[in-house]
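User: Reviewer 2 asked us to show a designed sequence for the structure in our supplementary figure. I'm pasting the structure tokens here. Could you produce the per-position amino acids so we can include them in the response letter?
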């Protein structure tokens, strides 16, 4: 197991496990809650096929430490630069060509929810609670939460959730599409790891990367561009598979 600040990293099989801390609330004491270089090194592990992100202890993350945030302003820090550094972490995760699963139990507020939204799949324990409380503090989500929430649950539901700063439970989150499934809290970790294993176990890494890249293209490129890139990815995999069969590999 490796550690950077309050965040730990370990590998189980071909799955990386990123654990948010420090417990009990796993507050993010600054926007760049992991050194970007450490995150890049961890996610560049050879043979890595997927990542599960969860919180240490009973909660996923209560989000930003408001006192630390205002402390940065009081000390004369360039807050805009620090926020951009935090966004770079989530952008890096979102840019990976492997699946990311957020395993959410307990509190998932603010910056914690922004981390979860950077993942492809979100699994909620039956005790999970979700909220964007920033409007109640005179702010808004600052690590890409407005953009990712609008893209995930739609602008109307995102506006309602962010501006009202209401807390919703796992069943409500499932109903609006904020999470993808609900499981008993005792089964959360194993369910998340089992899902990742099922998706990746018998899939070569080039196939996983191509599929994730094609799906990301669908959301970022024009229809014509995404279709063109899909064709390129398909042909590249087909050539590799033909060569493998020619060599007589099973």
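Assistant: Here is a per-position design you can include in the supplement:
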């Amino acid at each position: 197991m490796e550690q950077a600040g309050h965040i730990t990293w370990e590998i189980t099989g071909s799955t990386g496990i990123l654990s948010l801390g420090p417990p009990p609330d796993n507050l993010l004491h600054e926007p760049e809650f992991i050194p970007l270089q450490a995150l890049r090194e961890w996610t560049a592990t050879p043979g890595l096929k997927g990542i599960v992100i969860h919180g240490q202890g009973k909660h996923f993350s209560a989000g930003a430490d408001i006192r630390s945030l205002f402390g940065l302003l009081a000390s004369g820090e360039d807050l805009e630069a620090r926020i951009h550094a935090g966004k770079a972490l989530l952008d890096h995760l979102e840019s990976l060509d492997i699946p990311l699963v957020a395993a959410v139990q307990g509190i998932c507020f603010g910056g914690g929810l922004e981390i979860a939204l950077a993942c492809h799949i979100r699994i909620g324990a039956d005790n999970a609670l979700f909220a964007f409380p920033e409007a109640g503090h005179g702010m808004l989500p600052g690590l890409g939460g407005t953009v990712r929430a609008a893209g995930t649950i739609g602008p109307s539901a995102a506006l309602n959730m962010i501006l009202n700063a209401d807390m919703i439970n796992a069943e409500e989150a499932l109903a609006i599409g904020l999470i993808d499934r609900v499981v008993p809290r005792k089964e959360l970790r194993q369910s998340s790891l089992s899902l990742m294993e099922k998706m990746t176990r018998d899939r070569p890494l080039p196939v996983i990367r191509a599929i994730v890249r094609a799906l990301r293209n669908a959301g970022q490129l024009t229809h014509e561009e995404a279709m063109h890139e899909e064709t390129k990815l398909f042909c590249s995999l087909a050539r590799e598979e033909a060569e493998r069969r020619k060599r007589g590999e099973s």
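For the response letter, you might also mention the following. The beta strands are 2-4, 7-12, 15-20, 50-55, 100-104, 107-109, 121-125, 129-131, 168-169, 181-183. The radius of gyration is 19 Å.
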